[in-house]
Task: structure prediction
Amino acid sequence: MAKKKKIARGRKNRKGGIGAQALGLFGFITAVVFMPTTIMLFFGMLPTLVAGLVDRTGKGTKALTVGSMNLAGCTPFLLDLWTKGQTAENALTIISDPRTIIVIYCAAGIGYLIDWAMSGIVATVMIQRSGSRLKDIKKRQAGLVERWGEEVTGKLVLDAYGFPIEKPEENEDDSGSSKASAKALRK
Result:
């Protein structure tokens, strides 16, 4: 029985694997057919690759933000390539122009700035929300203490039955009888 489940899992993984392989093959064929565009995008989208490798969160938000701005920076030069004629020579001429690289990589830099700024804004908002939530919780706790007494705070020492042990009075005599009775109550 376990062998059949293992085989079924293997088949299921192969189906997903076949789909991924087909997508990879389609991507490779497309990259070969449109080689000049592939050359432009390879050199232009390097900051996105770096952002994807450097992102420690595993969510890919940095790669998405940088990639979007990076692609926006590549778009005018891709349109220029497509209008001038899609040849490898035109692609290398466009990508070797320093202004092209500066524009594309500055757009990616703006993506990094957006990611950095939004992370700070989101963190600040979350801290403010948690602070106000903490105030609300403390207010509710004070209301519960007012309604039910100090026993609900958890600060009083309770006996085995859950009743608070009374603390000895301060103005009793110093003979130690009150301390002894308090110890007896705690046991």
